Amino acid sequence: MRFFLILLIMLTLNMTGLALAGDTPARAKGMEENATVVIAGDRIVGAPLVATFEMGDYKVPEGMYASINIDVEKKPEGKKPEIQTGYPQSRLLFSAPGTYELRFRLNQISKSSCGGVDSLLLLEKTEVLEILPAGGGQ
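== Lipoprotein ==
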């Protein structure tokens, strides 16, 4: 009977520990519900566009940082756009007119002192941009 009671206590403690470890606020939320990316500027060749990552009330916790990835999924023939990633704003510059499909990803990164890295996806969004030739003509 004593063995059964000890086993029951150990199982209860183990299950409680698992629930607590997996239920941190960021992990429970997954991608941030109010997160979005807003692209501002003239959508013409040579004009800079600014992509601003808006997170509503959410703030990246102290000791962690934001990592931005912007992937060019589709583009017209020619050179890829110049992309300078940053948080909360990234800069985009297009040198050729056409339709571009960009995938924006915002991750929250944390590092332990032991060298481990943890990444939490806060936002992933694909945007299609129509870039016009300089001078606005087609």
